[in-house]
Design brief:
Distance between the termini: 67 Å
Strand content: under 5%
Shape: globular
Number of strands: 2
Strand order of the largest sheet: 1-2
Helix content: over 70%
CATH class: Mainly Alpha
CATH topology: Sodium/glucose cotransporter
CATH superfamily: Sodium/glucose cotransporter
Structural class: mainly alpha
Order of helices and strands: HHHHHHHHHHHHHHHHHHHHEEHHH
Length: about 525
Amino acid sequence: MKQQFPVGIGGLIFIMLYLASVIFVGWYARRKETRGSLDDYFLGNRAIGAFVLFFTLYATQYSGNTMLGYPGQAYRIGYSWLQSVTFMIGVITGYLLIAPRLHILSKKYRYLTPTDYLYDRTNSRAVAVVAAVLMIWGLGNYLLEQLVAVGHLFEGISGGLVSYTLGIMFFSLVMAFLVHEGGFRGVIWGDTIQGITLLVGLFITMGLIMTTFGGLPQAAAKLAAQKPALLGVPKPEANLTWYSTLFLIGVGAAVYPQAIQRIYAAKNENTLKRSFAVMAFMPFVTTFFVFMVGIVAAAAFSHLGTIKADQVFPMLLNPVMQGSTFGYVMGLIVLAAVGAAIMSTADSVLLTMASVVTKDFYSNLNPQAPEERLVHVGRLANWVILVVLALIAWRPLATLWRLTEIKFELMIHVAPAFLLGLYWKRMSTLPTLLGMVAGALLSSAMSLSGYAKYLGIHSGVWGLALNVLIVVVGSLLVQPSAKEAERVQRRHFDLFEKAGLGVPRAVGAIGVEPREEKGASI
């Protein structure tokens, strides 16, 4: 029997119009390009206001994994997944630790990519290159998440008529056009539209769930009768994994390269403060809402496969949209919100990956290349990156949540260089490099040998512990030259003190006894 197409012809037209609007934004942003420079293409001339900054951060932070992977995980493990709300709170805490200081430095020294700060802080090209490789790994997995999510979305809302693979191909073409044409300006304008759509869609989702499926109380009653294990108290090891995940995401997401570039691009410090003040409340109306979706789905559907569970969001919408005209229209808006979450994150990640490839690799190999050529390379890199990842996404080997863990397990190792570098004058270059490499190798070895978690703690957290140990102990043992200590003080910490962000002396001065001889860059 032929499958029914849940969204219908009207839904298809709605989806096409939405994607056409994304293409228009890219085209229009290209018309507004001022001078074809790296600053313009990758950072929008560093002039984002508070309203746009909030929505681009919000839309980028809450991704396809949030809308599909989080409900899928709640479906699999039950009420203990309520802990996921705290993950995003940890992310905001991390942002608040680094954003004010990075913004001050980026305005002064015109940083373009996250590793520009690391090179400036450590005076080491090796540190910057290793960090760039780890960030590319994290960003690649992040973009892969979005492609897998959009494949599940298209397959779910079409009842299987639009295949997972075809959904990825179509989405990739639209996104690549947006990034190629619009650059950073097109991405953040699109994010603003998509962020508003996402926020509205989440509130509609709650209404639909409460009226159609009865919400959490009815779901809990069904689960008590059918799947009581999903209501149980987490085991001690599960609690330890919760803390580990909170740390993994809170620290790892704080150094999201695409978020750091938005910190660079903010118009001023007040813009950052206003945006982050609102962002602090978003986990309660985003992560909590999608947690509820997963719990309701666990009561509504039985025996879905591990990866199939990542489709529970569109599966819940199918009966809603078929029940009434109002439900159909509201369901379309919700689907647009899911698509907005995926698109807004994917385009931001793709643009940031292109900037790292262009600035941190191609530009260093071709230091005389004019900016016009570098912008052209950045546009070309968008397409190459997307084609490679789309091919990988055709056959997903893990759930969306596992892709999230893989992403953080290596990218988290750039965090000590940022967090310690911004607050501790004593952080030294060689220990920073060794810690980053050793931590990443340990995390990789554990994952590859079947120990993605050991004693309930993620391999990325074990590696991070080794990383921090090497950086701290090594920095206390390896004395910087007087010249290097003076350079860091003058270029960084003097600026912090002038801005009222001085480090407490007991922290900033630990072990600062610079040796007189010259130190060599790595």
